[in-house]
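TL;DR need C-alpha cells for one chain.
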Amino acid sequence: MSDGPLLEVRDLHVGFRTEAGLVKAVDGVSFTVDRGEVLGIVGESGSGKSVTMMTVMRLIRDPNAVFSGEVLYKGRDLMQLDDDGMRRVRGAEISMIFQDPMTSLNPVYTVGWQIEEQLHAHQQLSKQQARARTLELLEAVGIPKADARVDDYPHQFSGGMRQRVMIAMGLSCNPDLLIADEPTTALDVTIQAQILELMGALQDEFGSAIVLITHDMGVVAEAANRVAVMYAGRIVEYSDVGPLFAQPRHPYTTGLLASISRLDRPRQQRLPAIPGQPPSLLTLPSGCSFRPRCPHAFDRCDEEDPALAARMGDAHLDACLLPPERKRELHAEAAPA
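>> reply
TL;DR here they are.
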C-alpha cells in the first residue's frame, strides 16, 4: 500500500465532443484526499463537481467523452485499469452515493435485493448474513420498520427514503473512500444530522475518507476538513475549512458565503446574490472565467487566466489575480461589525 494520499487526482481533464465543439466539463483539476479526511467540493450546478467524481469512479461511458490526467488510488492509476479491475474497486473500496436515487436504483428489484447483491459480490456473505446486514443498514439510515420495507420496490418509497436506501448501499461494504453526491438534499435537517453522524461513524471505525459534493455550505462547515470550490470546470479555491470560511480569497467563494443568512451579522432585507450566470463551457470568456460576474475585476483579469496557486505564502490556494492586500481589505469590509 502506498504511503501517500489515499486518492490523488492530477491534472484531470474531461471533455464531451458535440456538434458545436468540445465542452470542457473538467479543465485541469488536481486535489488529494488523505485517509480519514472529509473533502468538501462546492460550487454552482454545472461547475464540474459530479463529473469529476464520476470520472474517478470510471462511470462516464459516453463514446464522445475525452479524458486525460491521472487518478491515483492507493498508488494505482484507476484510468489505466480494465473493466474487471474497476469492478473490484467499485463498491468494495470506493463507493458512491448518487444524487438522484430514482435513476440510480433498479426499479424491477427490491431495495433489499440491491443491497444484498453488493454484499454477496464483495464480501462473500451468506444469504442470512447479507439479509441481517441489510436490515442493520436500513435501520441505521432511519428507515422505520426496516424488516417490513426491505422487500419493497423503489417506487414504494418517497424521495427521501430512496435517498436513505442509496446511503445504506454506499456504506454497506465499509469502503475506504465514500463519494457522497448531495447525500442530504432530499432529507429534513433532523435526518441530515443523522446521516452526517453515520458517515462520521464510518470514518471513526474504519478510517474511511469522504468526498462530499454539496451546495450546502452549512454541511461543509460541519463535516469537511478541506474544501475545493469549483467554477466553470476548475478549482478556484482550495483550503482547510477554517481559513476558507474565515477569510475567503476568491470573489466567487466570497459571493457563495455572502448569499447565506448569518447569525453573526446584522439582519439584511435581502441576501446579496452573485450577478449573471455561469459561462458556457463551449465559449469561456477570455482571461479569468469569473471575470464577467466579478465586482472586483480589473484590466489584467481580461488578459490572464489565473492558475490555482499559493498567492499569500501559505497552504491556502486560490485562482484570483487581486493583490493580497486588496483581498485583505475586501475581507475586512465584509467582516461583521
